[in-house]
Write a structure and sequence with these properties.
Layout: H1 3-24, H2 29-50, H3 60-75, H4 77-81, H5 93-116, H6 122-149, H7 155-181, H8 188-213, H9 221-240, H10 253-256, H11 262-284, H12 291-327, H13 338-355, E1 359-366, H14 369-376, H15 378-395, E2 401-406, E3 409-415, H16 419-431, E4 439-445, H17 452-468, E5 474-476, H18 477-485
Parallel strand pairs: 4-5
Antiparallel strand pairs: 1-3, 1-4, 2-3
Helix pairs in contact: 1-2, 1-9, 2-3, 2-9, 3-5, 5-7, 6-7, 6-11, 6-12, 7-8, 8-9, 11-12, 14-15
């Protein structure tokens, strides 16, 4: 184990011990603030120490996280040395320092998301907005709207009060994007940062929910102490994330996050249930007071769900088209395979009959391919097939079709050519066959009447005639018929 890792383990143990001691310090502002400032200052200092081991181009997110930690550490100092430092009827310096934590961390999250993957994942964005909107309804009902309605406090104070839940929602949405941006690789730093941010937001939620559950609990000193421990543990996790600073991915996260896992589906379902749950709760506890907000929130979430559904539908269509394409393509050569040929060739002949287009079909078989495989190995045989397919395709016209029929056997569709012209075209293919290999070929000209299978069978019979005649040659079904008549 390296000295670096042992040092971080020692720091973690010390920080955890300090948090435990913090729980037991006297219930006096001086003691409590002193411990809080000391512990959180160590977090900021630890990040500054750890960032030196991060590549210079990747340091920006950690520097902003460190700035946020420094702001939270400094926020307790005004209380420690004498209370409010700003106007009596407005927010104090502590509020401004605590609020500064949010844009600092948000900037760090944005930079980390950019490092994780260079392009925006729209599916992850829709999921993040859906969850934020669902929780935002609760924030509106239990925090934002009551603060706006409170005429007994100054406007600046009310604005600061609603700034906290709004900042929480922004961080929540960005954290979801970060987790989704982490992709298949699952790097530790983004996951730890996400855990830290969610833990910090959980502390904010406790402060909002607690008075609605039991207003008396919020007045106990130990309640604040326990919630502050949640904050401290979350900030410790954020600090320790720098032990595994690697964030940059391979850009493969986007494809990985387009689908919905069970956890993601459950999260989106819970977010969607926030609206009816809030509606039912208000109806059962004295009447609906946030009907307009609930209606707007429900409409927004419905639209987001429809966007997500459309994304999934388009993805399914793309995957289905890809599967169909792959099932009709030869994996080794990239040519049409036998299934594709059998499906499309009869339809092509029907169009050719209607438009009176001459058609010649050729069967091509690489000579002594088994011997080539046995001599040079199957990888070399596969390379020969790929190279041959590429070379032959380069000699064909854009509207000719070459397909792999099976094994070392290929089939070619030549249109608008007479049988003699088709022989010349296939001879050009023989001239570019790679690795000094040869092939035998059989051609059959369509008579505008025979079925597709019969035409292919005649070309196949001509192929075997070429092989039986010594290989490395082209035979035509017409020449066979002439020989039989003679």
């Amino acid at each position: 184990m390296t000295t670096h890792r042992r040092g971080w383990q020692a720091y973690t143990a010390t920080a955890l011990a300090a948090i435990v001691v913090y729980l037991a310090v006297p219930a006096a502002p001086g003691w409590e603030s002193a411990f809080s400032v000391a512990i959180q200052s160590s977090f900021a200092a630890a990040v500054l120490v750890g960032v030196r081991r991060v590549p210079e181009g990747d340091r920006a997110p950690w520097l902003f996280f460190g700035l946020g930690l420094l702001c939270t550490a400094a926020a307790s100092l005004p209380v420690q040395v004498g209370g409010d430092w700003l106007a009596v009827d407005g927010p104090d310096l502590s509020d401004l320092l605590y609020l500064a934590f949010y844009p600092s961390v948000a900037t760090g999250l944005a930079l980390m998301i950019r490092q994780s993957r260079r392009r925006l994942d729209r599916a992850a964005l829709v999921d993040a907005l859906t969850v934020a909107c669902g929780i935002g309804l609760l924030a509106w009902a239990y925090s934002i709207e009551p603060a706006l309605r409170d005429d007994t406090t100054a406007l600046a104070t009310r604005l600061v009060t609603i700034a906290y839940p709004i900042a929480d929602l922004v961080l929540l949405a960005m954290t979801i994007l970060l987790v989704r941006s982490n992709g298949r690789e699952g790097r530790r730093a983004p996951l730890l940062v996400a855990v830290a941010v969610v833990g910090y937001l959980a502390g904010d939620c406790i402060w909002v929910v607690l008075p609605h559950v039991n207003e008396g609990w919020a007045d106990f000193w130990w309640t604040a102490r326990l919630v502050n421990c949640v904050y401290l543990l979350s900030l410790l996790v954020l600090t320790l994330a720098i032990v595994w600073p690697r964030v940059r991915g391979d850009g493969g996260g986007a494809g990985a996050v387009s689908h919905l896992t069970r956890l993601q589906l459950a999260t989106l379902t819970l977010a969607m249930l926030m609206s009816p749950t809030l509606l039912i709760t208000q109806e059962l506890t004295g009447g609906i007071v946030d009907g307009l907000a609930i209606g707007i929130g429900s409409a927004i979430m419905f639209l987001l769900v429809m966007v997500r559904f459309t994304q999934l539908l388009k993805q399914a269509e793309r995957q289905s088209a890809l599967v169909r394409e792959l099932s009709r393509r030869d994996e080794l050569t990239g040519l049409h395979n036998r299934r594709s040929w059998n499906d499309e060739f009869p339809m092509f002949l029907a169009r050719a009959r209607a438009e009176n287009i001459p058609v010649v079909v050729g069967m091509i078989d690489l000579d002594h391919f088994k011997h080539f495989n046995d001599t040079y190995g199957h990888p070399a045989g596969d390379q020969l097939l790929r190279s041959a397919a590429q070379a032959w395709t380069g000699e064909l016209r854009a509207y000719d079709v070459l397909a792999r029929y099976g094994g070392e056997e290929f089939i070619v569709l030549l249109t608008g050519l007479s049988l003699t012209e088709a022989v010349t075209a296939v001879e050009r293919l023989r001239a570019v066959t790679p690795l000094d290999q040869t092939f035998s070929a059989g051609l059959a000209e369509w008579d505008f009447e025979e079925p597709a299978d019969d035409l292919v069978a005649r070309a196949d019979k001509a192929l075997y005639a070429a092989k039986n005649s010594g290989r490395d040659r082209v035979c035509t079904a017409g020449s066979l018929l002439s020989a039989a008549q003679d």
